[in-house]
Amino acid sequence: MNARPVSIVMIEDDEGHARLIERNIRRAGVNNEIASFRNGTDGLRYLLGADGSGEESAQRSMLILLDLNLPDMTGVDILVKVKENKHTKRSPVIILTTTDDEREIKRCYDLGANVYITKPVNYESFANAIQQLGLFLSVMQVPVTD
Fold it and tell me: Which of 28, 57, 102, 136 is the most exposed place for a label (fewest CB within 10 A)?
């Protein structure tokens, strides 16, 4: 079994937040490729391909960092599409958002989110979460299926 490197897919419309997240990821020693998108449309096109089949992601190992409040759609819409697709449903999704509504949090977990972090995050706990993520990424072995 050979593992593929995990790429981080960040869908975050706030450039300041995106830079901060990336800086914290790098500071935690995670050097994985980060594909960054400012809106849901571009992010989904990357994840599911132009045809929406998800076939393009069949050979990718991805971790998705997802903001819920995007200019063109909600992160929940993206979460649902990712978790419904056979090629992307195993990709871990971390929600990074300003919404701390209990119902929204529960809904995201019910839909398959792995972690829910509220912004503006306490940067120490965020850095810790990212470090855990780094450890997680380094041990995340994705079996290559033939």
Answer: 102
